């Protein structure tokens, strides 16, 4: 519904869901487009949010040890949920089963519900009148909040929010998301300096 309410057609909405199988990137892309952002800037923001999946892929490639011809297809299913299930398995066989079952079920259900949502958005007409423009950010925050378990993760999220919201009035749509991505290296740099200072004090 969110993408349909942002001006994407039914076909574009379904294609986005089929090809960009990662919720955070989809919400970021749709949100930037809804705000009138440049498509390339919106795509860049979505790309950076999906970079973490590449790190999952490095680990999963060792555990799954799939034939070379299958790897490009399996890469489409490398997301938070499939990585979590696969990494929790004790043997290579159960890793493959867990990855496949999780990936297949989520991919089918995600795209089916995307289709139903887009059809529903077309049926109800103007989605802004129903307040559905806030659905994307609300869902994203609901998914993100339980993952922030450490003080470093909460600091990264907090700084990203400050950067994103603070720069929203002065930068083109989609660009604040890219700048907010700098929150992670900034916090990690500050954390490293703090630990280095603590270590030097202990040595003295």
Labels describing this entry:
74% helix, 204 residues, single chain, 2 domains, mainly alpha
Explain this structure.
The structure is a single chain. The chain is mostly helical and 204 residues long. It folds into two domains: 2-132, no CATH class; 148-204. 74% of the residues lie in helices and 0% in strands. The protein contains twelve helices and no strands. It has helices at 2-5, 10-19, 23-34, 39-50, 52-64, 71-75, 80-87, 92-124, 135-144, 151-167, 175-180, 183-203. The termini are far apart. The model has no long low-confidence stretch (mean pLDDT 81).
The strand count comes to: 0
Order of helices and strands: HHHHHHHHHHHH
- Gyration radius, rounded: 19 Å
| Fraction in helix | over 70%
Gross geometry: flat
Task: Give the SSE layout.
Blueprint: H1 2-5, H2 10-19, H3 23-34, H4 39-50, H5 52-64, H6 71-75, H7 80-87, H8 92-124, H9 135-144, H10 151-167, H11 175-180, H12 183-203
């Amino acid at each position: 519904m969110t993408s349909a309410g942002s001006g994407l057609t039914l076909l574009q909405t379904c294609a986005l869901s089929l090809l960009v199988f990662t919720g955070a990137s989809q919400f970021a892309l749709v949100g930037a487009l809804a705000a009138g952002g440049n498509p390339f800037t919106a795509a860049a923001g979505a790309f950076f949010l999906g970079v973490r999946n590449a790190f999952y892929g490095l680990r999963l490639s060792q555990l799954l040890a799939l034939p070379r011809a299958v790897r490009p297809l399996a890469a489409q299913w490398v997301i938070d949920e499939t990585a979590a299930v696969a990494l929790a398995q004790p043997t290579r066989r159960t890793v493959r089963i867990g990855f496949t079952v999780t990936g297949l079920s989520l991919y089918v259900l995600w795209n089916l519900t995307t289709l139903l949502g887009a059809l529903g958005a077309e049926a109800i007409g103007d989605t802004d009148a129903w307040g559905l423009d806030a659905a994307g950010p609300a869902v994203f925050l609901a998914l993100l909040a339980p993952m922030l378990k450490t003080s470093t993760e909460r600091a990264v999220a907090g700084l990203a929010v400050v950067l994103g919201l603070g720069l929203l009035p002065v930068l083109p749509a989609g660009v604040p998301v890219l700048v907010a991505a700098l929150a992670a290296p900034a916090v990690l740099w500050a954390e490293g300096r703090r630990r280095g200072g603590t270590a030097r004090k202990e040595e003295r």
